[in-house]
Amino acid sequence: MKRFAKIRNNGGFSLVELLVAIIILGLVGTVVAGGVPAAVGAYKKVVEKANAQLLLTTTTNALRNELDTASNISEGDGGTSLSFINSRNYNLKIKSAADGIKVEYVEEGSSDPVSYLLVSEAAASKNLRVIFANIDYDAATGTITITDMKVLNNENKQLASLGTYTINVLR
Question: Long-range CB contacts (< 8 A, 24+ apart) of 157-163?
């Protein structure tokens, strides 16, 4: 009778080695899972700041488009609004409101002003708005100066700002 030789296989892992590997993987997973919310939060802040900067640029371009050909310009409301006639002969008023910079006009045959946000509703949907502290017109130099323009979020946190913005009115 032949004896069967006992086959020894030393190529596997012991139970202790497997437990140590599982514990190490669990610790690494915990560290990674803890860092994900911080990374997501940082990403959201960067995106919000980028959107605010883009909104500020869009707002300055929209203001320049409305005001560089303005005529019959007059200040109102203690320097927080500006009335003018635009290039299409509409009487308009630009003012800073709590929900953003608004343009007002009165439709023909009506006495009630109609207003809309200077920049699109898309900014409002991202919970951002642009306001300014003061708008002045210097008739001697033909310049409109807007001071302390800010982009704010819903918590009134300032995300972007522009100290002074000047528009030279074409004459």
Answer: 159/48, 159/49, 159/52, 159/53, 159/128, 160/49, 160/52, 160/53, 160/55, 160/56, 161/56, 162/56, 162/60
Contact 169, 68 (CB under 8 A): yes
Residue by residue, DSSP assigns 109-140 as: T--SEEEEESS-HHHHHTTEEEE-SEEEEETT
Mean pLDDT (10-residue bins), the chain, 171 residues: 61 86 92 86 92 91 89 86 86 89 83 84 79 92 93 92 92 63
Nearest to 143 by CA among 159, 167, 125, 164: 167
Q: How many CA atoms lie within 13 A of 105 on its CB side?
A: 16
Distance (Å, whole) CA 83 – CA 73: 6
Q: What is the pTM of this model?
A: 0.76
